[in-house]
Specification:
7-stranded mixed β-sheet; 9 helices
Length: 290
Amino acid sequence: MKLCLNCAQRFDTASWKCVSCGFEPETVGGYLAFAPDLAEQNDGMDAASHAQLDQLQNKNFWFKARNRLVRDLAKQFFPSANRIMEVGCGTGFVLVALRQAFPSGVITGSEIYASGLGPAQKRLSGSGEVLQMDARKIPFREEFDLICAFDVLEHITEDTDVLSQMHEALKPGGGVLLSVPQHPALWSAVDDCSFHKRRYAAQELQDKCRDAGFNIMRTTSFVSFLLPLMALARLKKKDANTLDAAAELKISGFVNSGLEAVLEVERRLISAGISFPIGGSRFVAAVKRT
């Protein structure tokens, strides 16, 4: 069901023109834009980082391992999902994993920055749609079986509003699959340069999900085996003015392969049902409470 962001009317038509007030969203770069004033600049991240990430994600161990875990958890906890949205899809790297998990699903990628939409659409290979959207104002109600957000909520001050919006946009019985950076003690210049608003405490995301109307199905840390190395690296990165944010992703082939192998073991254990109490990231799968 579509939701008019101008008058809050719900409607179910092929067109995005509101049946009540006649409001129609703009387009930016040929894509539907529901928050055009934020499409080029906002306080969530640096728009220029999309180009860097698009080049680095395909090779970096963390992005690759996270994609495999996303695919596993999505298939395990939401096997019958047909309509799927990723909030904050960036340039669409995780959309590939979601397409692998749901080959016949209808996938929508949403991103606040218009610069990510073109690459994201290419990664969907014409088998889905992308749109520009502010996650705090989702223009859907009871539309999706699964809504995902991977390392997105930490960029948004009003993360609880986003969770409530996700709840409203899900069909009865639908759910969310989320990941966030955790452990506030790990805060460093990397978080400053990444425009993070927070790193989550161990129970924080689960508690916020429950408050938004979700029941937790699974929660686990990720990047647990590598946490000591991560903590050591972050302790050395205290000055945001001298930090190259992309340097952390530029790792030599041998080291990158070794780190990926470690996370692959971890990913297999998580997929087998083992949960880790601590780690650089926190994953949560939760279902809409009815």
